[in-house]
Structures are given as C-alpha cells and as structure tokens.
# Entry
Amino acid sequence: MLTFPLKINFSIETAFYTVSNFSISYMKKINSARFQKIKAMLEKRQTDMAVIMENIQKGHNFSAIVRNCDATGVMNAWAVAHNLTAGREIQNGISKGAGKWMNMREFDTTTEAITHAKSLGMQILAAHLSDDAVDYRTVDYTKPTAIIMGQEGWGISKETATLVDSHITIPMHGMTQSLNVSVATALILYEAERQRSVAGMFTKSAMSEQEFEEQLFRFVYPELAEELSLANDVFPNAADPEGFWAKQVEENLVEVEGLVHHEGRFR
# Structure
C-alpha cells in the first residue's frame, strides 16, 4: 500500500498525482468507443492458449507471430532466445509495443517455458516434421494449449522435440516442405480459433471478474498500471478511474488552492 501525504491535481479529463520520488499521470480520458473496443477484445482473449517462439531470428517474423496471436485471441506470446540475435529481436519486439494487447514473456530456456505451460495445465505441441507428427487439423485445440514454433532455418531443437506431447505438421503438396514460420503459425492458430469458435469459447471471458478488471486497467492505462504494480497498490476501476480518485477526495481530503492533501491510505 502507498503511504501518504499524497498530492492530487484532479480534473475532468486527466488525473495527476505524485508519491515520494515518482509521479504517475493519466492520459486524457479514453474515448468511450475505444474503451468498449478494448473491453470487447479482452472478453475474447483465450487465456489458456500460448505460443512459444524458440529462437526466432528475424524481427519481422517475431512481430508477425505476435500479430497472429492478437488476431486469433491468443493471450500469451512467450519467447526463448538461444543467442544474441534472437535476444535482440525479442527485446526490440517488446519495446516497440508488439505485444501491447497480450501477455508477453521471455524465458531463458525452452524447458522453463514448457514447465510453466504445464503448470497451467496446457498440452504442449510443436510444429515439427517427424515420423510421429500428426496433421495440425486433427488436434483438439479446445484444451489448454501451448504451441512451440522453431527457428526459421532448422525449426525446434532436438531437445525440445523430446519434451513436447505431440508434433504437428501442415500438409504440403509442392516441391518445398516448409512455410515461413509466421505463415505456419497463422494457419495453426486459425484452426485453433475455428475450433474454439464452434465450441463457444469466444462468447464469455474465461477470467474471473477480478482478473478481468485488473487486466482491463492494464490495457487502458498501461503506464499507471505499471507504477501501481511496483507500489503493490490497488487498481482503480478502468471504466471510472476519476470516480475512484473523487471518492478519495470526498472521504479523506481537504482542498487547498486547487490541490488536495491526503493523510492516510487508499482503501
């Protein structure tokens, strides 16, 4: 919890406050239509789906895979870098906001990513041509699922191939036996989207009410959410952040020359 005194400069369009050595500022009040669009998007997010990118080398492929995740409602895009080139592309993708609308995370090893996915109850699939591989369209994607996509040149590592539950392939009838990694990802994810749509999994959020409200606030006010997370403080209601501050003013504050001084803590 944050300890006060706290200064707040409060207005209809913006809210600004300073605490100790850092400051947090709301952007202008979000447009209602955009807010509803973000909320509708979040309601369709598939929190039990993840794509694990193993050592993707090229930035445009990394970004394209993340866009594929966004388009098909996949909530989690995780990356593993085995060398400096892949590491730079991951960091560039994250810093450019490619994963603004989902949960992005970097793991040191694929084994760590797989262990994390299994702890969430996910089946682990890898796009990999092997004697045991099955057509990607025969898999049940309505189950919690993590899909591993490998490096552009040689695919997933030999070690990773031994750690997954199933290998999946995309049928090809031409002279080549491979697709661009982002194209392959799109095909697999849209099959997952098709199955989940038929099963009605996009009609209602899988998150609890609290999880949904917290994630909504992170999407609507990302900078403020980060600061509040660092301070281990509560999140206001994303639909009415000003009402949250106004309540603090009404209950605890005395106005002085347009500023308010708060003695106490957020409730």
